[in-house]
Amino acid sequence: MLVRLGQEYVYEPSAGDARPWRLPANGQVLESETEIMGSDALKEKVIEDVGYGRLHPASAAGLFQRGAAW
Q1: pLDDT reading at 33 higher than 80
Q2: 70 near 64, Cβ under 8 Å?
Q3: Which residues are registered as beta bridge partners of 11?
């Protein structure tokens, strides 16, 4: 996985700061992205968008054969 420092990580104060922008440390960026990638909300969204059957076809086939409601 490639993590790039994008505009969403640049702090741009609206007024009064001597430095116009600040970047977080690389460790902070990686920690944030790791938390996002491991979140239950993201996992649920991927399963919803891609479909359980495409992610785990063998498991899904077994569920459908047993008559599970999906």
Answers
A1: yes
A2: yes
A3: 22
